[in-house]
Task: structure prediction
Amino acid sequence: MTALEIVLLVLVVIVVVMIAGGLLVNARRYRAQERTLGADVMAADQALATAHAEDKGWDRERMEAAARDAFTARSDDEIRELHLVAVLDRPGTEQDEAVFRVVTASGEHDVRLGRQADAWVAR
Result:
C-alpha cells in the first residue's frame, strides 16, 4: 500500500465513524424529545378542552364528578388522575359530549359523558 492509499483509507474510516456517531446522537435526542413532546401535546389538548368547556358555560366540577361516578360504577380501580381531553359541542345540548382520561394503577381509561337535560351521564 502506498502512503496515499493509507491516508484515504484513514479518512474514509473517520468519515464513517463520524456519520455513525451523528446518527446515534440524533436518535438519542429524538427519543428524549419524543417523551417530552407527548406530555406537551397532552397538556395542550387538556388546556384547549378546558378552555372550550369553560367558554360554553359547562361546569367543570359537575363534569368531573360525573366522570368519577361513571368510572367507579364500572371499575374498582382507584383513580389517580383525571384529565379532560376532549369536548364535543354539537348542535343542541343533548348532543354535547365530554371525554375524560382516567389514570389508574392498571393504566389509562377513557370515560365518555353526554348531557341529559342539565346532568352529565356516561355514554
